[in-house]
Amino acid sequence: MIVTAYQGKSPGSRRRRSRSVHAAARRGKRRGSTRGKKHGKRLAGGLAAVAALAAAGCAVVAWQPSGAEPPAAAGQSGARAEHTPPARRSPEPSAPAPSASAGHRASARPSESGIPETGPGTFVTAPGESAKTGSGKALRYRVEAEHGSGVSAADAAEEVERILADPRGWTADGHSAFRRVAADPADFVVRIATPGTVDDICGRYGLDTGGEVNCSVDRNVMVNLRRWEQATPVYAHDVTAYRALVINHEVGHFLGHGHVTCPGRGKPAPAMMQQIKGMHGCVPNVWPYDPEGHLITGPSVP
């Protein structure tokens, strides 16, 4: 009889293997737990790094150099600067104004009154010459009208000639004389110009004509087109007479005469009085001298 050997394990062996398996399982759990903890730590660390980078990125976007403005403020600052007029600096009195003083303006722009508010700053010179009028050495002058002003330079020259040759004008002082020319050399230039161009040229010498009044600067006698065409309320019925006042007043400045005021109620207003600012009791008058050759004047004012 054949006896087969028994292949099973003894009870002690089975207990030892069971203990080994359970120990291995416990070790696996511990290792798994450790790996999970380490993995969690790595994940938490990664999330913290991402958060740190995001915060740094926000800081980079929000940070600006200390001297920079936020875009909205910078835009507001620019708008304010755009509406803030630059300070005007007066040139030296000896510096002549250039012929095309306002050449940056392309064309005349009419106003509601029909008087162009501004023009190109270029001028037409009246042709021809006049005979000398008055005593002494003649001052040579040109007459010009701005392009687009609607004024004929030739017609304006005739009026200026008549005014300066009148016996009640500056020649009555016994030593002033005038002669119109069409080219340099000229001692002064009578320019009839749009209000904007008058403001430009007069403003170079520190005078604010405000689009309304005339001025005499350097060798330029600037006549505001609005005054030439419309006079003032006092002279609205006689624009021709007011033109004589404008020429006599501004040429008077060129000759060295300053402003005066009304000498007394009911008396003729001096030509060197700023009549556009009020008559102050005087009656209208446009000539420096009366028909008897007496200077019409009054107390000096700034």
Automatic annotation (TrEMBL):
- The name this protein carries in UniProt is DUF3152 domain-containing protein
Q: What is the lineage of its organism?
A: Bacteria, Bacillati, Actinomycetota, Actinomycetes, Kitasatosporales
In terms of Pfam families, this protein maps to: DUF3152
- Per the record, which residues fall in region Disordered? 1-42, 68-135
Composition bias of kind Low complexity appears in: 97-111
Q: What species does this protein belong to?
A: Streptomyces shenzhenensis
Could you tell me where the Basic and acidic residues compositional bias lies? 80-91
Residue ranges of every copy of the DUF3152 domain listed in the record: 113-279
State where composition is biased (Basic residues). Answer: 12-42
